[in-house]
Amino acid sequence: MFYTDGRLQYPVRVETPDPVFARALQQAIGGVEGEIRVCLQYMFQAFGARGPAKYRDMLLNTATEELGHIEMLATAVALNLEGAPLSMQEDAAADAVAGSVMNGMDFRHLLSTGLAALPADANGVPFDTSHVYASGNLAADMYANVAAESSGRVLAVRLHKMTQDPGMKDMLAFLIARDTMHQQQWLAAIEDMGGAANLPIPDSFPQEQEKTEFSYAYFGHRRDGAIPEGRWTNGPSMDGKGEFGARISEPLGEEPMLAPARPDGGGQSIQSARSGRTGVLGTIEGAIERNL
Amino acid sequence: MFYTDGRLQYPVRVETPDPVFARALQQAIGGVEGEIRVCLQYMFQAFGARGPAKYRDMLLNTATEELGHIEMLATAVALNLEGAPLSMQEDAAADAVAGSVMNGMDFRHLLSTGLAALPADANGVPFDTSHVYASGNLAADMYANVAAESSGRVLAVRLHKMTQDPGMKDMLAFLIARDTMHQQQWLAAIEDMGGAANLPIPDSFPQEQEKTEFSYAYFGHRRDGAIPEGRWTNGPSMDGKGEFGARISEPLGEEPMLAPARPDGGGQSIQSARSGRTGVLGTIEGAIERNL
Amino acid sequence: MFYTDGRLQYPVRVETPDPVFARALQQAIGGVEGEIRVCLQYMFQAFGARGPAKYRDMLLNTATEELGHIEMLATAVALNLEGAPLSMQEDAAADAVAGSVMNGMDFRHLLSTGLAALPADANGVPFDTSHVYASGNLAADMYANVAAESSGRVLAVRLHKMTQDPGMKDMLAFLIARDTMHQQQWLAAIEDMGGAANLPIPDSFPQEQEKTEFSYAYFGHRRDGAIPEGRWTNGPSMDGKGEFGARISEPLGEEPMLAPARPDGGGQSIQSARSGRTGVLGTIEGAIERNL
Amino acid sequence: MFYTDGRLQYPVRVETPDPVFARALQQAIGGVEGEIRVCLQYMFQAFGARGPAKYRDMLLNTATEELGHIEMLATAVALNLEGAPLSMQEDAAADAVAGSVMNGMDFRHLLSTGLAALPADANGVPFDTSHVYASGNLAADMYANVAAESSGRVLAVRLHKMTQDPGMKDMLAFLIARDTMHQQQWLAAIEDMGGAANLPIPDSFPQEQEKTEFSYAYFGHRRDGAIPEGRWTNGPSMDGKGEFGARISEPLGEEPMLAPARPDGGGQSIQSARSGRTGVLGTIEGAIERNL
Amino acid sequence: MFYTDGRLQYPVRVETPDPVFARALQQAIGGVEGEIRVCLQYMFQAFGARGPAKYRDMLLNTATEELGHIEMLATAVALNLEGAPLSMQEDAAADAVAGSVMNGMDFRHLLSTGLAALPADANGVPFDTSHVYASGNLAADMYANVAAESSGRVLAVRLHKMTQDPGMKDMLAFLIARDTMHQQQWLAAIEDMGGAANLPIPDSFPQEQEKTEFSYAYFGHRRDGAIPEGRWTNGPSMDGKGEFGARISEPLGEEPMLAPARPDGGGQSIQSARSGRTGVLGTIEGAIERNL
Amino acid sequence: MFYTDGRLQYPVRVETPDPVFARALQQAIGGVEGEIRVCLQYMFQAFGARGPAKYRDMLLNTATEELGHIEMLATAVALNLEGAPLSMQEDAAADAVAGSVMNGMDFRHLLSTGLAALPADANGVPFDTSHVYASGNLAADMYANVAAESSGRVLAVRLHKMTQDPGMKDMLAFLIARDTMHQQQWLAAIEDMGGAANLPIPDSFPQEQEKTEFSYAYFGHRRDGAIPEGRWTNGPSMDGKGEFGARISEPLGEEPMLAPARPDGGGQSIQSARSGRTGVLGTIEGAIERNL
Prior knowledge:
Six copies of one chain form a homohexamer. By secondary structure, chain A is mainly α. Chain A is 45% helix and 6% strand. Chain A has a two-stranded parallel sheet.
């Protein structure tokens, strides 16, 4: 259960409203790198957490913080929209360059919200909750969280670069710091749960049941057999359970052959014949000779 | 540019076709944990990779492998659908329990594909490419990849548990091994790029420009001030640049106050009045006295 | 900014876990009639509210309550999934009817969440935030909220009917009561803002600028000229500003005629000819004579 | 079954084509406030209507009208696109300001439709039919319709403000009038069905089965106990069945405790331990002392 | 502008309601092969048609027919849902097999519509209007329409196979006939516009501006150089403008090399180095020797 | 299984990077007319192909080619973004017209990808795999492929028109040529399978089971009985099995009448009454007399 005090976690000031920057800020609200995503992701991870309660509690706590970040950013969008032109005429009058402010705006800020934030990204694409990664495996979820906070901080840094407004830069500097902490927090949680001992994820599957000859081998799929070398082709594996190697990938299976279509299954009649794998392929030489 | 040889990377056998398991397998094709996602994710990370070419090459290579996993799973779905009932009548006849096989099937396997795989998840929800995380920051992307392979291996392990078919178990044991490797690979890539020195991500933002007093502090949002302790509230931070701490979160900002609506902006007339923050809130005691 | 105390707003008990009912409950979490929707809808209405602060405060407050309803329902889903079969074999063993429990389950409860709730509806379709109606017009939003709580209560009543579990019935009886209140609350807010004086919405548009001869007329589009009568064809209009009437709808505009396609615009050559409206239509008699 | 006469319900004229305004108009076609939505919504409400036939007939009739509104707006979009630049070069030549018209356009008007309307919103996001609210409860649907026509009229008013074109203003003045009527119509239908007697919706659920002590109480979730007062905390409820009151929301349930994860369920090993609710939470003081 | 007479184009009878078949029928309403799609597709093609008016008129006419097919199918769904169980208990009682009917149903038929149709497919996935293909090129659109009616007839045939209900079979036999006609109609329209002379589409692009050496060559991408022969590798091309041939596809471009990342662009520091294409790739032999 | 050689199928050069054109190019990557779509469409058609293996092989081969087109276009987007402004300030400095470049850009190119391609369309809408048409009927799929390549070539031609960059024009001229071939290829495959003998699709349904009196009749739905004549109303049908004709469409079915709502089904009480079809409709004259 939840409470509010109506105040913002950190001050949100806009010195020079910029309706185009309002569009950019939307990415941090409803983008896949944004705050609705992390808020709901941590919520659902908490709601479904099985095992030691401290992880549930920690997740719920931070989910609650993120909710306040949505609030801050939505406020920032609304403040950047103060004074935006409502008509083509105003737009032309307000600026030496006819149409330029409106051209850069999200029209839905004018048409759908009355100068307020949308739960959508910088292109007006709504957020959808398939991006809420909550797998029921805490280690998998922690890595998903590190990833979310990494792309989140990358986004915040790019927004910080984009604007010159001191108020906006200040707010973003706060959010960047929180993203720093949250990256650290999820990495710390991985350590708290055992660090490398969590690997491979899930750690509860008896590894002898997997095809272990393929478990630490980098597969090369280049036609020329070259292979991009790096830490992933050399030395002990990151879980300490194997040695990295590399091999050229060769097909171990055959060409698939499905049964013919049932005559009453809605296919074409021709599909009810046997697939006739034999003799299908000509040689390119033949085809070239005949046609080119 | 790409090539194929028409064969499967690993054999796909189904001893006892199970049209209901075909539905479950869809999650590994078109689910957010599935192979279309990782294939396109690594592709787009490769296509947009800036910096040392070896990461691009490695990504492109593994993307190419993943394409073959889609092929394997699509084949597995089609093979599990061989012999599925096409009518309510056949369904009733084929089974002691009227309707039971069809009830558990994805009807689109009957209606939309003619007994073949869909690029959709176990609920028939199509994959959408907003799940392709390719941020332009290689370290962020590597963590996204670890996360993807973690939830991918969790899924494969659950499918392995779900079926008793030896052919399917064998195929999944191969895919589980590849997921093991790919988790290792992306972690190795992080080490290859510098390990903890990559943190916080992005490492190119001058950290003194963030609000550093909040960079390593876990914020408690519980009303009672209790805090879930763990590695994230104690000891050196994971990037070695700070010490974890904890604090009760208190609002540093005020209640937001937006300008009144413009009279010609499509709001209600009442919204053009000043917001009148003062005196708005009554006391709960007054309300209770009057009403309850 | 927000807080939690980790407890549930109302007790959630499940006496006999039912994994199929877990699927049904998803509709109340991530369906368009569900709690994620109302929570985010009231949030964004609050964040963007312009005008008297009391509406913002009221909205924010109730948004915060709804967040706790998501929590309750997510817990209910997880509890209904306790003991669900993880394999086809267990499913067959646990029940006299082979396959029946799994057939009725959302497979993603098994495969994607490890027996916990998804932010999705009863068909596994994720929620998307385009359903968050927050128009910047408070009266429009209040009606959207009445609508949301109406379909929400309809859903809760149907879930109440569907289950026999006393714990679930108790929880739903609470949620139904809250939906009752919230319907009342938004209707009360409309009265608080002036009742019928809010109409038509928005009330800030000078009504003489609309084509008032069409403002209170029900248009009949039946080919036979019959008209479905009711309160909407008779008596004073609901805003007290007109009298309802009815008329047969007749086209006041012509057939549209677009310019031909530019030859370099990617159309077919034939499209660059004039549209040739004249003489296009034959008579059905001619066509019939020639062909039937 | 349906018929057309190929003519427009109301004339659509554009004096000065404006390809940027064409983008704005898209919101009224394929936006959530738009005409595809209301058309399909009334259609599906009619198709599924149970009970007195007059509501079905009325709905079907108005759905048929709305179809003609889609036609009008699609025509308006196409006319606004006449003469739009097809290349960067033309764009620069046509305007003193290089690139300005194209920058503000929906590129899909150039690339995907050949200067015609899309069934999408002002950001090019396609309409999806999850927005078609048809609950099987006529009163719930009527409120959904009032809401749809309210946001629809708000949108039309904003478009009317945005443009200076007399033809467009004329067309919008007609559509605004129809939205006025349709708001009235659905409110009249509610009265026709019994007015306040419809409440709470659904009216068919025995209200004594809900937790009535919560049915008319506004819940305060502010941490400081303050409460936003209004009509919703005072006086008789809108359905005449209760008295509004207010109370501070306190949790009536406990902290949720889920069973540990099954060892073979794809979680981490650590999750199979008991959740250990006791002793999890430290005090913030301890954490602060140790770390800050 | 449009009209209705409230009657169905063809009788819809259900002798034995089958709530599971209701789910299957949804695919024909809201599936990508369904009637909402073709209705809106032909509508938007008509609304945006440039060139000879007869094509616009024909499209609008058939769009209007398709609207009536949605109506028929929505009625069929509702009739199949008559008498469906509303609770787990009824479900168990109504059938020897506990849970079996509900398991196979779309729960939203129970929860969201009150036993009526949804504008969604057989998995409850809503229709989205990105499937409305209306390119502004009439020939391209005609082929899209042939494709839509082909998959539509395939679907209708499969539904016809699935059910034994005489009423449903009768209705589907009508819809199948209409799909036959509509396939013919769009092919006839292609002939009407000039047949093969329409090719390649668009026919308005000067073909000498394309790289004509690749215009009639089938490219082989098999690693072994084999090529699947057929009419597409032999004989005159279908547009009569070339001869089919085949060639092994070889890369004509180099490996892409993007500029390094800007240091202030949110990437990792390592990405600001030159990409260093030279010397990146090791030989597989070296990697294998070292590691395996 | 698949391979790559890291090189591009055709050279991709950009002489003058244009970040706005990068947005336009996105349509060819992630739009419904784009390369991700055809690549996955041919893949899934191949994976599920039943019947003669040569069609499977041909499809797989061309799918593999299309993958390389995604690569080319993604590279083109990245190259067009080289040197794009990262801040409002740079944007203003780089151009005489403040804000103009950024206004026309996809902000996600700046914020989400670090100047690289997105798997999304020109409006940033992600691709979703419901557009992958693979019906299990090879003839239906071939027409879907012709349609895809037709709208694909239309798009490429429009992009070719839009840009003046010689490198981009060259790349597009190659892609246009490949679209030419692929249109030819799918038409050739139809001929290869029997040409008109494939019609109607599916050809495996006994045509005497459809309502043949409606199989070759164009239905007129105009209120005035006029009919748009053309090849589709005259002469032999395209499959050679009938004669085209035309008829005025008249309803053959009655007005639908659903059962009343169950009192415990979540509807309104009023809906449990009989539908009372008789006497519902008044005459328009009566309504007009009373009200207007």
